[in-house]
Amino acid sequence: MGVLSKIEVEQRLLKVVRCECDLENVRLVRAKEEVAAQEAKVAAGESARDELDAAKSALAQLTEAAQAAAAKRERAELETAETNLRRQEKLLKLGSAHKSDVDRAQQKLAELKAQKN
C-alpha cells in the first residue's frame, strides 16, 4: 500500500470515529429530550412512572456510550497526529517535506495533548 493510500485510510478511519461520536451525541440529546417529555407526562398524570424509569435507564446507557465514543475519538485523533508527526519527520529527513510541515504537525499534536489535559 502506498503512502498516499495509507494516509487516505487513516483519514477515513478518523472520519468514521468522528461520525460514530457525533451519532452517539445525537442519540444522547434525543434521550434527554425523551426523559424530559416523560417527566412532563408523569407530572401531568398522563404516563406511568415505569415509562419514565425506562427512559432514564436508556439515558444512562446512552450517556456511557457517548462518553466511550468521545474517548475513542480523542485517542484516534491523538494517534493520527502522532503518526502524522512521525511521517513528516521522516519526509523531512528524506528532503521531501519542509520544516514548517513538521512544525505544524508538532503544533497539532501539542494542541490535542493540551485539550486532553
The backbone outline, from C-alpha atoms, is elongated
Number of domains: 1
Q: What is the residue-averaged pLDDT? A: 94
**Radius of gyration from the CA trace?**
22 Å
Report the uncertain regions: none
Distance between the termini: 35 Å
Largest sheet: none
How many β-strands, per DSSP? 0
Describe the structure.
The chain is mainly alpha-helical. It has one domain. It is 90% helix and 0% strand. The chain contains three helices and no strands. The protein is elongated.
Q: How would you concisely characterize the structure shown here?
A:
With 117 residues, this protein is an all-alpha fold. The chain has helices at residues 3-43, 49-94, 99-116.
List keywords for this structure.
117 residues; 3 helices; 90% helix
Strands, helices and their partners?
Layout: H1 3-43, H2 49-94, H3 99-116
